[in-house]
Amino acid sequence: MWTACLGGLVALSAAAGNLLPNPSFDRTAEPWRAAGGVATYVPGDGRGGAGCLLVARGKEDASAWACEAGGIEAGATYLFSFWAKQMAAGGGGCIVSGPTGMNHDVNVGSEWTRCEFLFPVAPSHKGGLQCRLGTWTKDAAVAFDDAALQPAALFHRKVGGCVLGEGKEISGRTYRFAAPFDSVFGAASRPLADFACGYNSNRWCFDHGSWVRYRHELGGTPFAGGRVTVQIGYHTGGTLLVEARGDGNAWVRAGAIDKLGAGELALPAELFPARAIEVRLARGDSGPGAFQVHAYGLEAALGTDPGAAGRGRTTFLVLEEKSDALDVAVKSLGDLVPGGANEVALQCRAPADVSFALEYGPAGGERRASRDAVRREGGVALPYELAKAGAYELAIVARDAAQRVLYRARTSFS
């Protein structure tokens, strides 16, 4: 079973759909603005015949377009996506993309290629996000089109009484977590609790005042001991301070790392037993230089048998359309496997003339529509069938009597 991450329900952000202004650059680049280097608008050369944004290297290393996105919800997760192509072979460097503080470096070829990644917004965040599309030290020009910033919800695998997200594993009475930095999830993970730190592609970038906090829980099963592993993949100066606490008590120092490489730190015995363990990574000095954390993990002994075993997985649901007239919270996506308990569960109150359906099928293949919606008190159940294992795409759609779309959210899984 794949269950929602927030108290069993996910009501996707009130600001639905694409939060970027003029994302397809139709007839103009505005309100996107040039933000360094050589940035030009090219009419009629986009993927669909409209315009596109072009960046080329000038006298500076960085070239970019930027805009401000509003409607951002603190503590939420978003999907940033765009299409890009390189206008000539070679050129070195890379594409830079995404909101300030959550950059992702990528590279593409000479054909239009879609790029996407998830990123978290800190619970303390206020205001909008400045987003950019550009290049760094790249001699070849790059074109951009059809960018998107969309609310996303994370759904995690449930095994017994334990919720196991991406990077988690239970084996016997041992719990392990490895942050899924090298994946579409990036910084986003179930244990990530809060942060005040920049992130780039697959690593946290620590400067003065930076910190990241993880919280580990396992359905009430107590932790009996643990150790943290950290990989510093870039270091020109500074000290990483590792602290921990159990069940919300005082922070206790576990150790410090001040050089390139991997470090393993045992958590103090006084923290255990504890039903929740928090680990805080922080810049612990005021000297020159900076460092980057390329890996974070926790291995912990469990005080009792958790009654579950296996590897965690996470899938995400992207909100594409939502009418203010309809409130929908997604409770579960079902098992998402052939022969499983495959049923999408929604919590909602909708007029009788609103219809619900699933549109799904193999990735890139023909879609089928399931309109066998079952209305229950306060909700709707939508069953689906998967003939065989493979990569699939699924959309949840609600329409009014005139067949206008009131709600649409999509996911992909395998």
Which key features would you list for this structure?
414 residues; mainly beta; 13-stranded mixed beta sheet; flat
Q: What global shape is seen?
A: flat
Helix content: under 10%
Main sheet record? 16 strands, antiparallel
The number of distinct β-strands equals 34
Number of helices: 0
Question: In angstroms, what separates the terminal alpha carbons?
Answer: 14 Å
Spans of at least 5 consecutive residues whose pLDDT stays below 50 are 5-10
Structural class: mainly beta
Textual characterization of the structure:
The protein is mostly beta strands and 414 residues long. The chain contains no helices and 34 strands. It has strands at 2-4, 33-34, 38-42, 52-56, 62-69, 77-86, 94-99, 102-106, 113-120, 129-136, 142-159, 162-164, 168-171, 174-178, 192-196, 198-200, 204-206, 211-217, 223-235, 240-246, 252-257, 261-266, 276-283, 291-302, 310-311, 314-322, 328-334, 343-348, 355-362, 368-370, 374-376, 379-383, 392-399, 405-413. It has a 16-stranded antiparallel β-sheet that branches. Strands 2, 5, 7, 8, 10, 13, 14, 16, 17, 19, 22, 24 and 25 form a 13-stranded mixed β-sheet that branches. Strands 15-18-23-20-21 form a 5-stranded antiparallel β-sheet, with no helix packed on it. The radius of gyration is 23 Å and the shape is flat. The protein starts with a strand and ends with a strand.
